[in-house]
Design goal:
homodimer; alpha+beta; 10-stranded antiparallel β-sheet; 18% strand; ferrochelatase activity (chains A, B); peroxidase activity (chains A, B)
């Protein structure tokens, strides 16, 4: 259906060039079309830019957090391992093209008019918008009698324990394969997931998907910290995507961790966290600030003046969120957060169905999310939250030129 | 709970000024803070700008279409007409503040710490982002024995007929009051609807809401026409928001139309149109182009070369969408479209729940949407669509300084 991964970085024209558009965006499109591995580092900072697809790590983890998210979990509906591997190769080629701002295959108007287009077309003319596509494999993919992977399940790919207050909907949890699409333009992120689903027809089936309209974490400490739907700055003390030492310690898995195929990869925890915003909105400002442990206006830790001032845990209530989530309260545990706010209509009870789609990457969830989430059992914020969806996926290392998503696992 | 409408245009500081931020966006924020009616016309073209709230017509109709949408339909849960009118006044003050980039009331950190904040805070520090808030009243509000409005129901506010293929979900249809929030930043649009819902607690209840991630129509003919999820340019022949003659003829209601309180207002039809994108994606390019009546790459009418070339209806198939929707096929009927693409997770059958949230404004739906939609009964596109939500609302004229949303109806 699509070209193999070997041609992914070839000389195909970008969406923008194909349409013959001119103007300031042309340079970016032309650079992207010239080869994804030559995309410039400063594209990270360009709204219309392309983020390199190939590399030691998958993009979309340490990459500066983009504005919008479309996340999809897939079930594999074939029992044929070779067919699954073929799909992963097709997906890789498509992902390399789309992240470079090019259409899938021969494009929405390429090939012959008598055939369905290779690309669905809704991103024609749009810049790459810093699209990243990040893949992860769930524990169910490693089940016995499926694809012969039962001996390759990483020790860190545990079954997440039940946490107090969890009310998980199986229709919004788990999945054999997860794809995180992040971009500054939601149309580009949705286009990417939709085309992967299209290419995967008959091999995978969309289990659930989630749109995130606003990022709630930043991995660039000098950028303005975004606010979550509680109105507070979120992710102030996140792991910077530029800090290689912290990333190596807390985010990237190593061969010594028990699954050599995961070296350079990471573990993704997703939690759909419904916020009881109507209740929260009736709490006083003082109460809100006590619960979070930061002031609402500046985002400064209570007792300090500025957002990035050090947190003095002794000045926070024992059940304040920032205190319980802080590395010093968790034996130094840290995770890299990339969450997004969501609003999915209303709940039939007159309330908006809104909250935080929490995404966190870590080297090992047992010493990362699980450890911290257990410590949050006494969090005074819990009164206003409910975890309604959940998943854990092993995200393999980045794709080398000529390789494909998951090749270290399947070869 | 909030200040009265008389103070809406006062000298409150903008969100941006309040936080003491500097930079290029400051000028816009400062101008907005100085008074909404002095916001400049060229703010229409500024991504961070403010669109004036007060005027002869409501903003958000002829206004150049913003990038993102949050639409909400409310049920009125009080039987007290005075309480409803008080809410409309409170909403007006909040809308005037938020569209100018200012927080509601005393803000998220104003007032006393012992009280809940007047604003929920998640838009703190964000520019106005061309936010518009547009209100409409549904037929149910005029029911006998509710608010004494039964004699004021406009003749044009009909009950929409059943159209062939309709499969309407009552949970996504109708509502006493509709609010359309459009902005270039979705966080700003969501913040606005969420705060209106918060202010309305006990008076109104969210019946349903819809997020739109990408605009599919433009009201600025010189701008790049966006593409819908079928990959085609949509809304090429829309009514330009700058064409006063066309607006007067097709969009703005007049006193002579049968309801004097609606003079300067308009009628909004919303349709949640699910697209069977998986089926569409398996249609050949030639078939897709025949069905639409335009080529996919340029958006040109079949037989023509460029997008804005005149449509020669004789060169299109008798059941082509563009032909059946064209004014020449509908006695000159035209509507102003402001629709958005949506993706709301998946449908439990392995497919994305995606499509078009169609929004159209017109002077009279009987000679606008209803006429055109009846003519689309034979549309070959119908095989790929299903209308699953619907609503019609009478949107009153714009608010004059000192007035409130709906004052021509309630006073």
């Amino acid at each position: 259906m699509t070209a193999g991964p070997d041609t992914a970085g070839g000389g195909r024209v970008s969406r923008r060039r194909m349409l013959g558009l001119s103007g300031a965006g042309l340079l970016v499109g032309a650079a992207a079309g010239a080869g994804v591995d030559r995309a410039l580092a400063d594209h990270h900072e360009t709204p219309g830019g392309a983020v390199p697809f190939h590399g030691a790590h998958q993009a979309g983890i340490a990459t500066p957090v983009q504005d919008r998210l479309h996340f999809a979990a897939f079930d594999v509906v074939t029992e044929d391992r070779d067919r699954l591997v073929r799909l992963l190769k097709e997906w890789t080629a498509a992902a390399a093209a789309m992240t470079a701002g090019r259409p899938v295959g021969r494009g929405a108007v390429g090939g012959v008019a008598e055939a369905p287009p290779d690309d669905t077309g809704e991103a024609l003319g749009l810049p790459p918008s810093r699209l990243t596509l990040t893949i992860g494999f769930g524990a169910s993919l490693f089940a016995k009698d499926r694809f012969g992977l039962q001996d390759r399940r990483p020790p860190a790919l545990v079954d997440l324990p039940h946490f107090p207050g969890d009310k998980l909907d199986p229709q919004r949890s788990d999945g054999d394969i997860a794809v995180q699409a992040c971009a500054d333009d939601p149309q580009v992120a949705v286009h990417a997931v939709r085309n992967l689903a299209r290419i995967g027809f008959g091999v995978v089936s969309v289990r659930w998907s989630q749109l995130g309209f606003g990022k709630t974490s930043s991995t660039t400490p000098d950028a303005q910290t975004p606010r979550n739907l509680m109105g507070f700055k979120d992710g102030t003390a996140n792991i910077p995507g530029t800090d290689d030492d912290l990333l190596a310690k807390h985010v990237w898995a190593a061969a010594a961790d028990g699954a050599d195929w995961m070296a350079g990869g990471s573990y993704l925890v997703a939690r759909r966290i419904r916020m009881h915003i109507e209740t929260w909105d009736r709490a006083s400002l003082a109460e809100q600030e006590q619960i979070i442990g930061r002031d609402k206006k500046e985002g400064a830790p209570l007792g300090a003046r500025r957002e990035h001032d050090p947190v003095d845990l002794r000045r926070l209530a024992a059940d304040a969120h920032v205190r319980l989530a802080h590395p010093d309260s968790n034996g130094g545990a840290r995770i890299l957060r990339r969450g997004y706010s969501f609003t999915d209509g209303s709940d039939g009870l007159g309330r908006l169905d809104a909250g935080l789609f929490f995404l966190a990457y870590q080297r090992d969830p047992r010493t990362g999310f699980i450890r911290i989430q257990r410590n949050l059992a006494g969090d005074s914020l819990n009164e206003y939250l409910q975890h309604v969806g959940s998943g854990l996926w092993a995200c393999p290392p980045g794709v080398r030129r000529g390789g494909y998503w998951g090749d270290t696992l399947f070869r």
